[in-house]
Amino acid sequence: MHRPIASLLTVVSLSCVATVSAQPAPIFTSEDVLAVRTFAGGQGVAVSSTGRWVAYALTDANDEWNVQEPRPTSHVVVQTLGADRPGAPRALTTGVSHSSFPVWSPDGRRLAFIREDKFYGLDRNVQTADAVATFIRLPAQKYATPEQRVAFHTQLRDRLLAVPGITASTIASTPPFTFAGRRRLTAVDGRLASDPPPDVVTVVVEPAYFHTVVRGLVLGESFSELHGTPGHEAAIVNQRFAEVYLGAGSPIGRHLELRPPTAQRTYLREAEGPTPPVRVTIVGVSPDIRQSLGDAVPIVDLPYRAEAPAGVTLIVRGSGGSAHVVSAAREAANAIDPDLALGVVRTLDELRDRSRSPAAGSASQFAKIGGLALVLAGVGLYSAIAYAVRRRTQEIAIRMALGAQATHVRWLFLKTSAWVVLGGLAVGLPASLALGRQLQINVVLADSRDPVMLIAMVAVLAIVALVASIVPARRATRLEPTTALRIE
Questions:
Q1: CA neighbor of 231 nearest in space, from 335, 171, 305, 295
Q2: Which residues contact 246 (CB under 8 A, 6 or more apart)?
């Protein structure tokens, strides 16, 4: 086993030497170091028990997921170990994911490893444990001014924190893992951001949001009670925003100009004129979180006091279970305003799982389509074979009149159906494996070569073909030859 591994390392080393000797030696910069794909040694290099295969994790060192916890993209690669030289490496995973720790089965025929997609890493930046979220909309008749809305939520927070077991409370215009509003980024440090100006995701939050929901800040400080008041316009951007729009240098102290959304024309009102942009100063950088169903996008967090929207999401964390937290939130809100009703209550864990559901939903849809295709294939196979046997009823009658046994006649048609099924499997199995491989890579994380599933499908179709052959042939052999010959 050591000889194939040694030959693999020798070939890699000789290839590197040949490449270096064939070209002039360039200056090796820090960017070149980060671009090198390296073995993830701490994540395991596994050799199969047969000594034929080796599996290892290959890491892109320059692709960090976030500053707090670098999570580079890595893929599991398998390679054959020949006596003379190893075969070409083949990556088992693609895309932005972190795959590691390959382990072979005892018989050396199967490989298991851990795969973690990028958005799973982003979700670690959100504190979902013991937290519930519910929507609150303050009626405009009672809370017409921003000051009244700020006062309500201040009282609500104080009442909640006084309840035993409640550890934190905050509000946000939209919770994590859900779609948020957008504003137009018109300028960065007084210069046009781009032409046309881009739309960036904006979330209005309280100061407590960054220790109640988000796991702290990467850089800078959180909002204070002054931020959002005149003369203290501020913003906190996420790492993705700083990477896309701010470039090198510290984001702290940089200035942004954001244009609020303009009300569109409807049957009941005219469209409003363009709203002037608001100039804000960046005071902090937050870790990337998902404010949508996909990857991290540039996000700007604004202080609640700047606008105090009527509709917000209340996020409360506490011990004793979600029922206790929800009950405390309802009692605290009704103590301030008995007519106020809370919206649908969901835990942050539920919101996270629902945002990941498109992949599960795709898998479910493909399973339903596959089941329907199996039913249609079974019905079509039965109809085709039964019709073919039915057309040969007169032939069956002649064979029976000449002394053929019923068992021999049934076996004749069974063999004919078996050839049809084998022909279909010869075409269908390779096609299903190829298509399953593409679905496994791009749509769902499932084994495209599951032997149990493939055997089950073949068995179902074989049983359908058997029934479709035997039932009509059995009926034909029971007819009197003179009666069967008169059938058109």
A1: 305
A2: 188, 237, 254
**Cβ pair 66, 239 in contact under 8 A:** yes
Q: Do residues 339 and 120 lie in contact, with contact meaning Cβ atoms separated by under 8 Å?
A: no
Alpha carbon distance 236, 284 (integer Å): 5
Cα 430 to chain centroid, rounded: 28
Which residue carries 């769902």 as its tokens?
444
Contact 39, 54 (CB under 8 A): no
Alpha helices in 124-237 (DSSP H): 146-161, 209-212
Of the CA atoms within 13 Å of residue 431, those in its CB half-sphere come to 6
Alpha-carbon distance of 406 to 143, in angstroms, equals 89
Q: What residue ranges do the domains of the chain occupy?
A: 2-117, 131-355, 357-485
Answer yes or no: pTM beyond 0.70.
Answer: no
For residue 87 the two structure tokens come to 């075969």
Contacts of the segment 104-107: beta carbons below 8 A, 24+ positions apart: 104/46, 104/47, 104/48, 104/49, 104/53, 104/55, 106/49, 107/49
Q: What residue spans of 199-347 are helical by DSSP H?
A: 209-212, 239-241, 322-336
Please check whether residue 311 is in contact with residue 211, taking contact to mean a CB–CB distance below 8 angstroms. Answer: no
- Would you mind telling me the total number of residues written for the chain in this entry? 488
Return the DSSP state at 214.
B
3-class SS at 172?
strand
| DSSP-derived secondary structure letter, 126 | B
Contacts of 357 by beta carbon, 8 Å cutoff, 6+ apart: none
pLDDT tens track, the chain, 488 positions: 444 444 443 433 333 334 334 444 444 344 443 444 445 445 567 888 888 888 888 776 544 433 333 445 677 788 777 656 667 777 777 655 667 778 888 888 788 877 665 666 788 889 998 999 999 999 989 999 999 999 999 999 999 999 999 999 999 999 998 888 899 999 999 888 777 888 899 999 999 999 899 988 999 999 999 999 999 999 999 998 998 899 888 899 999 999 887 655 554 555 555 678 899 999 999 999 988 766 778 999 999 999 899 999 999 999 888 889 999 999 999 999 999 988 889 999 989 888 876 655 666 677 788 778 878 877 877 787 777 777 777 777 777 777 777 777 778 777 777 787 788 888 887 887 777 666 655 554 455 566 777 788 788 877 877 777 777 777 766 767 666 666 65
**Cβ–Cβ contacts within 10 Å for residue 224, how many?**
14
